[in-house]
UniProtKB/TrEMBL annotation, chain A:
<feature type="transmembrane region" description="Helical">
    <location>
        <begin position="123"/>
        <end position="147"/>
    </location>
</feature>
<dbReference type="Pfam" id="PF12911">
    <property type="entry name" value="OppC_N"/>
</dbReference>
<feature type="transmembrane region" description="Helical">
    <location>
        <begin position="12"/>
        <end position="34"/>
    </location>
</feature>
<dbReference type="InterPro" id="IPR050366">
    <property type="entry name" value="BP-dependent_transpt_permease"/>
</dbReference>
<dbReference type="InterPro" id="IPR000515">
    <property type="entry name" value="MetI-like"/>
</dbReference>
<dbReference type="InterPro" id="IPR035906">
    <property type="entry name" value="MetI-like_sf"/>
</dbReference>
<keyword id="KW-1003">Cell membrane</keyword>
From TrEMBL, chain B:
<dbReference type="GO" id="GO:0005524">
    <property type="term" value="F:ATP binding"/>
</dbReference>
<keyword id="KW-0547">Nucleotide-binding</keyword>
<dbReference type="Pfam" id="PF00005">
    <property type="entry name" value="ABC_tran"/>
</dbReference>
<dbReference type="InterPro" id="IPR017871">
    <property type="entry name" value="ABC_transporter-like_CS"/>
</dbReference>
<dbReference type="InterPro" id="IPR003593">
    <property type="entry name" value="AAA+_ATPase"/>
</dbReference>
<dbReference type="Pfam" id="PF08352">
    <property type="entry name" value="oligo_HPY"/>
</dbReference>
<feature type="domain" description="ABC transporter">
    <location>
        <begin position="6"/>
        <end position="256"/>
    </location>
</feature>
From TrEMBL, chain C:
<feature type="transmembrane region" description="Helical">
    <location>
        <begin position="246"/>
        <end position="271"/>
    </location>
</feature>
<feature type="transmembrane region" description="Helical">
    <location>
        <begin position="138"/>
        <end position="163"/>
    </location>
</feature>
<dbReference type="Pfam" id="PF19300">
    <property type="entry name" value="BPD_transp_1_N"/>
</dbReference>
<feature type="domain" description="ABC transmembrane type-1">
    <location>
        <begin position="99"/>
        <end position="314"/>
    </location>
</feature>
<keyword id="KW-1003">Cell membrane</keyword>
<dbReference type="InterPro" id="IPR035906">
    <property type="entry name" value="MetI-like_sf"/>
</dbReference>
<dbReference type="InterPro" id="IPR000515">
    <property type="entry name" value="MetI-like"/>
</dbReference>
Length: 278, 538, 325
């Protein structure tokens, strides 16, 4: 069975993929549908949804178009999710690979380091980092990457530890292949599928983290983000519920879609597990 | 005189869609009489355990009996409700499994797990259950039963755990005991003890036993009657004497002949050449690093091991698990570094090479591995897997791939196999690929670590034949590590017996097998299942 | 005896981790853009050059780096986290005053999420492929994907604004002057919404984990043994499968403790719960970095305590570990 056929067997994953495609499309189309900055005041404030044409989701406390904010926000969420996950992989994969392959003291040192980062409460660390580096896309991406690499390192390490004594790896060592070749060509390709699955879930978590940071007022002040929209509307929740409601639904759908896609990838990449699970 | 205790009639069990065949077993019929041991024999995939699982109501999900009946004491078990079935399990039919390491709940004390059997069938008070559990542990011969009853499974050895399993299965004196490969995971000497225990209990209690195994040696030890299965069908059915000594079917004959032990090795002319490999006083201790508050643990794997191997010679290293035989092999190929001692390979001290020097010289000693499913990288094409060795040693990709094709041809797979992935091959074929890979570098010495242990007997015979053939053609020198003395007997010129990291005895294969000097060697030889029958018929 | 040794070991490790966090804090202050004196003062009176000079002297910022580090480390070791110029109080006093509220909230949410998650997960595992099992898992996925602060806000709208069932802000009714039992009830009422919203996300995690872990455990050989004994399915589920499945969940619960402290920052912010999470939000808004770093240190210490507890529980649950240590 082809990869996609296995993926599509999980109906939830297919739904997730469709939602995700829609959100990506939203992000791409945002500058065309709403060419004006989402920060611009365009109508009177507190306009409820569906009341005035062109403002299906109403306006916020400053008279900004909520629909425009949501479409532009999609771009920010996806970008931060993807970039911070890539950075986290760039930290976690090499660390985990080296720790798992060499073992011994190297492993001990690297794992103490990883454990330290795992002990520190994630979100509090991200807050402190962004607050002190000053909020910007770069500092947010860095902070999210710094708090989310430890699980990658642990996963890759565990995979490497279980594979490094596999007979085909020992055979490679016996024919005189270098450690570099063994790590890159024999072991790493066989750890890719769990890494891909974890990465798709990490993008989801990163989006949640970004929105939580923006909610607390730690978003990049130059870009419109879903978390910022909810945070800005927090104090007026009694008068204007929709200001918090719609961006929240957007986050929820994105994160849900990514999780569904992640599960589908898991089924498609590890067909044996999927069969056992059902 | 009476009806059989268990009667299986035209049983057909369907596999789920997408399996490699439609039926696990097809139109199978046999009986188990009261008080007999019925052996169901077959290689992996023969469907030998299926009928047992069906009658216990323990068929895996998606697998179900579509036709036939299983009559136990007048009752068709296939039509029982889950509740009725449950009342039978443990009470009238007991079962033991292959893996004693995983068959017990790791978080429950042994006594509680035995007492559970009484509880499941509402028998006795809590106190009485404990007392009976203790009596059972005594009966199955566990040392210090009063301590063992409070032990967790991880505190017992494999053989002891299997005894606990037997105690559990026999707790309510069932009329039928199903033993599904109960000794396969055990060492030979432990296997002999467990077989004796089962035979003994069967006679004392007069129960019927359905004994499922792949090993004709074990069959010869215990069977009253034998049912041989292949690909879901019965090949031959009859008394133990008939089937073992006068097999009618070609497949049965092939299986019995495939047991290597029927050959007693020919004496080899002593060689006068300089040794290819000379091992002197090898020592290796495994240490688990202690922590701040944790004492370090030491396991001695090799103690003053010395031996020689002449060019063109095959030396067998035999021993049970924990004897250090695998560590010895891994030291010789330098996957492990010995603590002390020398490994002279045609004069070079292989144990003293530094990292880069070692990498350049590694081609001189290659290895054939045990597990055909783990020894090939699932993402690498077979040809490339073989070519990697020469390429790492400076051969061009084109030449290396061409050579890989030739080698695949040599091991009987054909050069077309180069472009295929490992998962397209069976276990035996993969082992051939592993052999081709070991040959690719033209090594001076090949270490085969349990190279045929994971294979079915008939496949085992083919691989041994291939090795024998290659030995002649290429005058290979082989260090052959195995736990199976019958295999060693077939292929080795000289035998080294190891126990607890030491060499107990070494000599020509003939001398070690026919006139063993040491008590431990004798014990090992006596423990080989089926040996008594074999010698009688020889 | 064993436990004494174990706890000493864990405490030693905790001290090392906390020490590293102190250094980490110190490095952060150095790395931050701008004048460290201004940062420590929370940019209070950043224009007043004289005040900044005094600060530099006071914090020893005119001293060489290693002296500064030593002063900072020894200060924190003596539980001196400095002074919050915004709130005009020592950081330690501020935190200690807020700590009980956070402990109450996270403790309640932790127990609630673990208990409900394990129950829901076992139900889902026992009902694999049945609609009820799928519904549980769909709900778990939904809660897992929902931003915590958004659930909090929406529950304020629903339960407090529209239904008027539960109080949405604070820890007790201001000015009511409740005492004794009435006070307990009042706090409990205020606790319902924050604790539930905080628990939902973690409940989702534990539900998914429990189900996966139970399905894995049910594949084990000893389950077949248990069935061969003739045990009832419910007994097998509880005594054999669930017991073995719980071990990885305990480990996970320990790891999630840190996330829970993070989640508390969001819930306390929305519900104006007077804990250290809310304090952190206030510190953020006022750019009171000294207070922020103090809270950061305390939240890490809290996680370490959680970790030690789960470690001990794990050792109680798994006999194999006792032997090994």
């Amino acid at each position: 069975m082809s990869f996609f056929a296995r993926f599509a067997q999980n109906r939830g994953a297919l739904v997730g993929l469709i939602i995700l495609m829609t959100i990506i499309l939203m992000a791409i189309l945002a500058p065309f549908v709403f060419p004006e900055s989402p920060w611009r005041m365009v109508q009177r404030p507190f306009l409820p949804p569906m009341e005035v044409e062109g403002f299906p989701l109403g306006t916020d406390t400053m008279g900004r178009n909520v629909a425009a904010g949501i479409m532009h926000g999609a771009w920010v969420s996806l970008l931060i999710g993807l970039v911070s996950t890539s950075v986290a992989l760039m930290i976690g994969v090499p660390l985990g690979a080296i720790a798992g392959y060499y073992g011994g003291l190297v492993d001990d040192a690297l794992m103490r380091f990883t454990e330290f980062f795992q002990t520190i409460p994630n979100f509090a660390l991200a807050i402190v980092l962004v607050a002190i580096m000053q909020p910007s896309i770069t500092s947010i991406v860095l902070a999210i990457a710094i708090v989310s690499w430890p699980p990658v390192a642990r996963l890759v390490r565990a995979e490497f530890m279980s594979l490094r004594h596999r007979e085909y790896v020992e055979a490679a060592r016996l024919v005189g292949q270098t450690n570099r070749t063994i790590i890159l060509r024999q072991i790493l390709p066989n750890t890719l599928s769990p890494i891909i699955v974890l990465a798709s879930l990490m993008v989801a978590t990163a989006i949640l983290l970004e929105s939580a940071l923006s909610f607390l007022g730690l978003g990049d002040p130059n870009v419109m983000s879903w978390g910022y929209m909810i945070g800005a509307a927090r104090t007026v929740i009694r008068q204007a519920w929709w200001l918090s409601f719609f961006p929240g639904v957007a986050i929820l759908l994105t994160v849900l879609a990514l999780n569904l896609v992640g599960e589908g990838l898991d089924d498609a990449l590890n067909p044996k597990l999927a069969r056992e699970r059902s | 005189m009476t009806d059989p205790l268990l009667s299986i009639r035209d049983l057909t069990i369907a596999l789920p869609k997408g399996a490699d065949r439609r039926y696990a077993v097809e139109d199978v019929s046999y009986d188990v009489e009261r008080g007999e041991i019925m052996c169901v024999v077959g290689e992996s995939g023969s469907g030998k355990s299926m009928a047992a699982n069906a009658l216990m109501g323990l068929l895996p999900k998606g697998v179900r009996a579509t036709h036939g009946e299983v009559i136990f004491d007048g009752q068709n078990l296939l039509t029982l409700t889950e509740k009725q079935h449950r009342r039978l399990r443990g009470l009238r039919i007991g079962m033991i499994f292959q893996e004693p390491m995983t068959a017990l709940n790791p978080l429950m004390r042994v006594g509680a797990q035995i007492a559970e059997v009484f509880e499941a069938h509402g028998q006795y008070s809590a106190k009485e259950r404990q007392a009976r559990a203790l009596a059972l542990l005594e009966e199955v011969g566990i040392p210090q039963p009063d301590k063992a009853i409070r032990a967790y499974p991880f505190q017992l050895s494999g053989g002891q755990r299997q005894r606990v399993m037997i105690a559990m299965a026999l707790a309510l004196e069932p009329e039928l005991l199903i033993a599904d490969e109960p000794t396969t995971a055990l060492d030979v000497t432990t296997q002999a003890q467990i077989l004796e225990l089962i035979r003994d209990l069967q006679q004392r209690r007069g129960m019927a036993v359905m004994f499922i195994t792949h090993d004709f040696g074990v069959v010869a030890e215990v069977a009253s009657r034998v049912c041989v299965m292949r690909e879901g069908r019965i090949v031959e059915l009859g008394s133990a004497d008939e089937v073992l000594n006068h097999p009618q079917h070609a497949y049965t004959r092939a299986l019995i002949e495939a047991i290597p032990s029927n050959l007693i090795p020919q004496a080899q002319s002593p060689r006068q050449q300089a040794p290819l490999l000379e091992v002197r006083d090898l020592n290796k201790v495994f240490r688990s690093r202690g922590g701040l508050f944790k004492p370090a643990r030491e396991v001695v794997a090799l103690r003053d091991v010395s031996f020689q191997l002449a060019p063109g010679e095959t030396v067998g290293i035999v021993g049970e698990s924990g004897s250090g035989k695998s560590t010895l092999g891994r030291c010789v190929v330098r996957l492990e570094r010995p603590d002390s001692g020398t490994l002279l390979l045609s004069g070079t001290d292989f144990s003293a090479l530094n990292k880069s020097e070692l990498r350049r010289q590694r081609w001189r000693v290659q290895m054939i591995f045990q597990d055909p499913y783990a020894s090939l990288n699932p993402r690498t094409r077979v040809g490339y897997a073989i070519a990697q060795g020469p390429m790492a040693n400076g051969v061009s990709r084109r030449d290396a791939m061409k050579q890989a094709g030739e080698l695949l041809d040599l091991v009987g797979l054909g050069a077309v196999a180069v472009d295929r992935f490992p998962h397209e091959f069976s276990g035996g074929q993969r082992q051939r690929i592993g052999i081709a890979r070991a040959l690719a570098l033209n090594p001076e010495l090949i270490v085969a670590d349990e190279a045929v242990s994971a294979l079915d007997v008939s496949i085992q015979a083919q691989i041994l034949e291939l090795l024998e053939d290659l030995k002649q053609k290429l005058s290979l020198s082989l260090l052959f590590i195995t736990h199976d003395l019958r295999v060693a007997a077939q292929i080795c010129d000289r035998i080294i017996v190891m126990q607890h990291g030491r060499i107990v005895e070494q000599g020509s294969a003939e001398a070690v097998f026919l006139s063993p000097q040491e008590a431990y060697t004798k014990q090992l030889l006596d423990a080989i299942p089926g040996r008594a029958t074999e010698l009688a018929s020889a | 005896m064993l436990y004494v040794r174990l706890i000493t070991m864990r405490l030693l490790k905790a001290v090392v981790v906390l020490f590293m966090i102190i250094i980490f804090n110190f490095v952060l202050i150095q790395l931050a853009p701008g004048d460290p004196a201004a940062i420590l003062a929370g940019e209070a009176g950043a224009t007043d050059e004289e005040f900044l000079r005094q600060l530099r002297e006071r914090f020893g910022l005119d001293q060489p780096m290693y002296v500064q580090l030593w002063r900072y480390v020894s200060g924190v070791a003596m539980l001196d986290f400095g002074f919050s110029y915004r709130q005009q109080m020592p950081v330690l006093d501020l935190i200690l005053a807020r700590l009980p509220a956070t402990l109450l909230l996270t403790g309640t949410a932790f127990v609630l999420s673990l208990a409900l998650g394990i129950v829901a997960g076992s139900l889902a595992a026992a009902r694999v492929k049945k609609p009820s099992g799928s519904i549980i898992m769909a709900l778990a996925l939904l809660f897992y994907a929902t931003p915590l602060f958004w659930v909090a806000l929406m529950s304020v709208v629903l339960f407090s604004v529209y239904l008027d069932l539960l109080p949405a802000y604070g820890m007790y009714t201001v000015g009511a002057g409740h005492t004794g039992m009435a006070l307990v009830l009042d706090v409990a009422k205020h606790l319902v919404l924050p604790a539930t919203t905080l628990a939902l996300f973690f409940m989702a995690i534990y539900t998914r984990m429990t189900r996966a872990s139970m399905l894995e455990a049910s594949q084990q050989d000893f389950v077949k043994t248990a069935r061969a004994k003739g045990l009832k399915n419910s007994v097998i589920q509880r005594r054999h499968i669930l017991r073995n499945a719980l071990l990885p969940i305990i480990t996970l619960a320990g790891l999630q403790a840190g996330q829970m402290v993070g989640g508390a920052i969001l819930t306390e912010t929305v519900f104006a719960w007077p804990g250290i999470g809310r304090l952190m939000f206030e510190a953020l808004q006022q750019r009171d970095y000294n207070l922020l770093l103090g809270i950061f240190f305390f939240s890490a210490a809290l996680v370490i305590v959680f970790n030690i507890i789960t470690d001990l529980v794990y050792r109680l649950a798994d006999p194999r570990i006792k032997e090994a240590s």
